[in-house]
Amino acid sequence: MRIDPDYGKLRYSGRIDFTDKKAPVMVFPCSYIAFRFTGNRLRVMVENKHAYWENYIGYILDGVQHSVHLEKQGKQTLNIEVGSTANGVHEFMLFKRMDACHHLVILGFEVADGAEFLDPPSAKDRRIEVYGDSVSAGEVSEAVDYVGKEDPEHNGEYSNSWYSYAWMTARRLGAELHDIAQGGIALLDHTGWFAAPEYIGMEQVYDKITYNPELGDCRLWDFSAYTPHVVVIAIGQNDNHPDDYMAFDPGGARAQYWKNHYEQFVRAIREKYKNTTIILATTILQHDAHWDEAIDEVCKKIDDPKVHHFLYSNNGRGTPGHIRIPEAEQMAQELSDFIESLGEDIWE
Question: Which of 172, 237, 247, 312 is the least buried, fewest Cβ under 10 Å from its Cβ?
């Protein structure tokens, strides 16, 4: 029995492109589709659009997580091995492990003839949105033998958004998550590492649903489709490439230019979400402390009671490589504790 992507008992989460409801496109990490079904057969029809890295998709079936290596281009069918459960009902989630190094088009599902679809898991009442880079996306998170170390050689196989501090935080707080995270991205164009050689910054990405020039035209996001209670802005680490001007000249013109644009970005988020709590942060990835001092300066200048600057216990000095699962768990605990300290009113 074939099920189209717009079937009513499928639940989607994340900033997903529904321009074609029969072929929605998953772009951002942590985006997912969840449903409950009976029977012993499940196939997932997809089309991968590859830009770089090897591409993997994740799924959780009856509480067990798996990953599938995708062909670089074209339509393909993922055969999901389905066992038995005590009540005959299976819970399935297909999720985007990686950022816009690839797009995944969902073309449909196939289950056994006579299988039933039950009501999907309910959407959570709390909502979080994160704007960040590779750390927020969970890049290289599964390289657990390299805690506190430089990254091993890799080609995408260790990246898993499920183990990002962003999704861990959302799960701790019982919240939905839109993870607007892209590996290599900085705030400004022509800095950072994303979309070389021109480099595209978060200023150009934050209001888009598709944005990687290798994968087609850009599309604007409709902000009315999702209003978060909490926004975390975790930008200010890749901004030191190609020049770490904030480190060697924190009072200079380039540093001031960055601070002006960072302030404009925070105010742009505030304009989208009038009452949302906004948390300004970086991560434990090693970087010069002047970036965090610049963020603190901007936070104080904005002087908004719902805009906060948050620092982790080992902020900017925790690791020279990407954040691994244990490190992300510690970050998620600290960030969750801080968010909860702001009181229940933030979720209203």
Answer: 247
Adjacent-strand bridge partners of 230:
128, 277
Return d(Cα 129, Cα 125) in angstroms, integer: 13
The C-alpha R_g of the chain, in whole angstroms, comes to: 20
Q: What's the gap between Cα 205 and its chain centre? A: 13
Amino acid at 85: T
Q: How many residues does the chain have?
A: 348
Pairing status of strand 126-132 against strand 175-181: parallel
With beta carbons less than 8 A apart as the criterion, state whether 45 and 59 touch.
no
Cβ 24 vs Cβ 12: under 8 Å: yes
Cα distances from 34 to residues 8, 62, 195, in angstroms, run 12, 11, 31
Q: What is the pLDDT along the chain (348 residues), one digit of tens a residue?
A: 999 999 999 999 999 999 999 999 999 999 999 999 999 999 999 999 999 999 999 999 999 999 999 999 999 999 999 999 888 999 999 999 999 999 999 999 999 999 999 999 888 999 999 999 999 999 999 999 999 999 999 999 999 999 999 999 999 999 999 999 999 999 999 999 999 999 999 999 999 999 999 999 999 999 999 999 999 999 999 999 999 999 999 999 999 999 999 999 999 999 999 999 999 999 999 999 999 999 999 999 999 999 999 999 999 999 999 999 999 999 999 999 999 999 999 999
Q: Can you tell me the distance from the alpha carbon of 195 to that of 148, in angstroms, rounded to the nearest whole number?
A: 27
The angle, 0 to 180 degrees and rounded to 10, between the axes of the packed helices 289-302 and 253-272 is: 50
- Work out the end-to-end distance of the chain between its first and last CA atoms, rounded to an integer number of angstroms: 42
Q: Which residue, chain included where needed, has tokens 């994340």?
A: 14
Alpha-carbon torsion (166, 196, 157, 110), positive or negative: positive
HSE-CB of 205 using CA atoms within 13 angstroms: 30
* Calculated CA dihedral for residues 136, 142, 147, 152, nearest 10 degrees: -100
Burial of 119 (0-12, 13-18, 19+ CB in 10 A): exposed
Compute the half-sphere exposure of residue 106: CA atoms within 13 Å on the CB side of its CA.
32
